[in-house]
Amino acid sequence: MADALLTVRELEVAFTIGRKQYPALRQMNFQIGEKERVGIVGESGCGKSLTSLSVMGLLPETAAITQGDIKLSGKSLAAGQNGGGLSFKGGQISMIFQNPMTALNPLMPVGKQISEMALTHLAISKKEARRLAMEMMSKVGLSRVEQLYGEYPHRLSGGMMQRIMIATALICKPKLLIADEPTTALDVTIQAQILDLLREMNRSTGTAMLFISHDLGVIREVCERVIVMYAGYIVEDGPVGDILEHPVHPYTSALLEALPSVEKRGRPLYTIPGRVPPLEERGEGCPFVGRCPKASSICENKTPELRSVTDRHRVRCHLFSEGRFSG
Prior knowledge:
Structural class: alpha/beta
Radius of gyration: 21 Å
């Protein structure tokens, strides 16, 4: 991708538990273009949030990048994993977390929390920061912003708090917005409003988006391209339409089979047998081998490579060879 904004190349992240290192992300290679909306989907434990924390430089103390690089507009971010790049990242990348109730400071008015972000990363006065904060609060659909500026988080609804988080994330006009399951704690109606808001902010500000979810239905609503992760690997990625209409990897097919629909009404929903293996149980071979109904001996012994289905669609599966299934 010639105009890539974010480039993740051969990224590997491992946790140290006791005296042993356990790989949690392996062979991560992907790019996000200017203004592009890309989703990452997979079950809990697949590495979605760990990927976003790696980009933000917010890895926990027990985790570290062991290989690879992350670049934003050609500048390496991995070198600042211990905090050295936080100023740059704060102005160029922002993140919306799952639960605004825990992400917001309960002891500070919400408006001040937005303006503090602007004061930290922009060379402006407190008066200008306040003006920008109220302007951004209006842009994300909040009303009575002068009164709301001085309110504390506990006085706001979940949807309002998430809009405050979005305003905080966008006030510095970042090039990339990472949204980590931003609608998980919200009811269906508010969830739809937040998804509409994120799409509109992408159109109006040109901010690229990395949207993390366990729900392919939500990814369908928001994203242009999707990355499917399983047990620390990218197992399939490509345009949303291609992945949802013509999935190649058995895991992607299983995720789609588990989605509720009108046609499945009255029937038990499909569930994928087994579980995502914990770090200490992951070995060589295909990461999905223990749950795949089509697994063979090669799947147990050799990790498949990420191969091209088309020029924009890739899959990591031994069943796929030279553009078609074998076996």
